[in-house]
Specification:
The chain is α+β, with helices and mostly antiparallel strands. 30% of the residues lie in helices and 26% in strands. Strands 1, 2, 3 and 4 form a four-stranded antiparallel β-sheet that branches. It has a three-stranded antiparallel β-sheet with strand order 5-6-7, with no helix packed on it. It is elongated, with a radius of gyration of 41 Å. Belongs to the pleiotrophin family.
């Protein structure tokens, strides 16, 4: 009986071993069947970097538009192309539509010039635009508001009307 058990164990071991060898052979064959991808050839180009013009809006002075790019080179297939672009409508056009500035708070009103000013430092320039590092803007001072004497008379009228209603 023990010899029969021993023979059965050897058969199971042999079957497992053969299955293991078969699996290894199958995996090795699958890997051998895969073709190795040749490395991509690096193209050496005589083409220069793209130089982009400013964004020109399709309509108005902001919104969607286009810009043209050019590059030089003897063997360039493409030396000009057009790209879509967008000029944000909330940017200060006064300093260039492609330059964004971070502004300080408005300064005090200069009584001699009746203007108040503030400065802005360059925050971002779109597509390598040529922007000033700092800019200064001015605007007229708002009207100096003095308390109107009519306001007091309106309050008195309202209070008088309230008292009349209470008496009624």
């Amino acid at each position: 009986m023990q010899s029969q058990q021993y023979v059965q164990q050897r058969r199971k071991f042999a079957a497992a071993f053969l299955a293991f060898i078969f699996i290894l052979a199958a995996v090795d064959t699958a890997e051998a069947g895969k073709k190795e991808k040749p490395e991509k050839k690096v193209k050496k180009s005589d083409c220069g970097e793209w130089q982009w013009s400013v964004c020109v809006p399709t309509s108005g002075d902001c919104g969607l538009g286009t810009r043209e790019g050019t590059r030089t080179g003897a063997e360039c297939k493409q030396t000009m192309k057009t790209q879509r672009c967008k000029i944000p409508c909330n940017w200060k056009k006064q300093f260039g539509a492609e330059c964004k500035y971070q502004f300080q708070a408005w300064g005090e009103c200069d009584l001699n010039t009746a203007l108040k000013t503030r400065t802005g430092s360059l925050k971002r320039a779109l597509h390598n635009a040529d922007c000033q590092k700092t800019v200064t803007i001015s605007k007229p001072c708002g009207k100096l508001t003095k308390p109107k004497p009519q306001a007091e008379s309106k309050k008195k009228k309202k209070e008088g009307k309230k008292q009349e209603k209470m008496l009624d």
